[in-house]
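Running log. JK asked me to keep both predictions on one page so they can be read side by side. First protein, sequence followed by its tokens:
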Amino acid sequence: MADLVHPARALWWLFEPVHAVTYFQPEARVAFEEAGLHGRLHGYFATRAAPLGAVDAAPVTAAFFNFAPTMVESALPEVWNHASPEEALTARLKASATVLGRLLEHVDQGQVELVAETLEQAATRLDCAGRVLAAANAALPRPSGLYERLWQAATVMREHRGDGHVAALVTAGLDGCEALVIRCAMDLRREDLQPLRGWTDAEWEAAAERLVERGWLTAEGTVTELGRIGHQSLEAATDLAAARVWEDYPRAELDRLAAALKPISALCRGQLPINPMGLPDNQ
């Protein structure tokens, strides 16, 4: 791992694609549809929210943070009329096994086992207080299949970091749309993220105006020095919130995990049509 990057962030760069790839692959759509989850929104919101139970839109909007409430409300709670949370959980494990099985077929299975076991062990050591999505996923039964284990462990770890990132955003006084606007002004594409998150043009522009008033954006929509410092502080706070679980691991063990994860992550990353997570290009 690069010495200039916090270990918690460097590892997130590697395990995030393992989680995210499932939602973008045709095998996942088939598995979701077989469970009664038709359409991208039903499949995504049902399978990601399923660990919380048959919840309404409000807690999912809060937990997912940067989705427009109207987008979440278009799927929840109506989706539970088509598939129960238990059926959604089964569908997402089936999807993960099929997708990762295809992508990692020629990867050393001993290395896959190493990654799955190490992430599973780390997940059991997480402090999930105040982290609803992480806690709900960590409480799920351990799957039996290797690829299901890998995906679920990566999911627990990324939801744990994501919950911490939401806490940092809230502490900084940013709302969900503002968080997307500032990130798109830096290095992501509005045309990718805005439709995926469901914000209207009026809502997006209003968020941009608030960031201009705050001094994080110029009137032309570029990031100011204050905005860059603010964003760096957010990322540092997120790293700190995710760091404790890795602190007792010797550096050699972290390097071993990263080395085993890299080819797995690269194969998954290569199947992502867009980069909504803001992962660096060289990972």
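And the second, directly underneath as requested:
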Amino acid sequence: MGISQEISFRLERLILDGGLAPGQKIPSERQLATRLGVSRAIIREALHELQGRGVIETQHGRGSFVASIVPTTDDLEDNSPLMHLFAGHPRTLYDLLEVREQLEGQAAELAAQRATRGDRHRITKAYRALEETDPLSNAKPDHGFHQAIIEASHNPVLVHVLNGLKNMMLLTVHASVANLNPRAEMRQLIMKHHKQIYQAIMAGKARTARKVAMAHVRFVQDSLRSLENQGAEVIRVSLESNNFHENPTKRY
């Protein structure tokens, strides 16, 4: 194995181990050369090999980024098949929440077992951002908290699968925030769940982390179903809206 191939293998291992997440920018050639103790020419050759295999994507003027292992688009447009399903079939919201319950429970368990000091710092930062944001408009910080946990699982398949579905998963978070957070009792329970998940991961309590993470998503699912059964109209927020309080919502 040549030097450039060895370097490309090491970079692939870093991606698989979750050290470089999907969409994350690769350090510069100079930084990599210094860190790995080789010339920039070797780094350039290694990056070219990774690009050829579709592991990384190079954007002119911006640098190189980790590609998604799972084929996806950065933007789910309104004419995409998944968006048609979400728009036309109310049950799709619950299908997505079922996926979240299982995979995020697994991610929380693994994060409690495997999180590094850096992971814990990122999870703490995400949790604090969530706490400090208005609960009536905190869908992105909420999603960011769960995303930090997923990345701390260090399971490359789990990380990349959920990254490939991140926009659809964000829709479920928007639905939770739009429908449940305005209700004080539900909002307080959701905040309590987030705290329990955070504390379990920080304490390294893997089984507890899995249990509370799954219970959290199940609560969201059951609560939305209950609202619909009571005749309430459940709001499903479009990806077009960055903030559903400032832009029109789509109700399906």
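Observation for JK regarding the second prediction: The chain has eleven helices and two strands.
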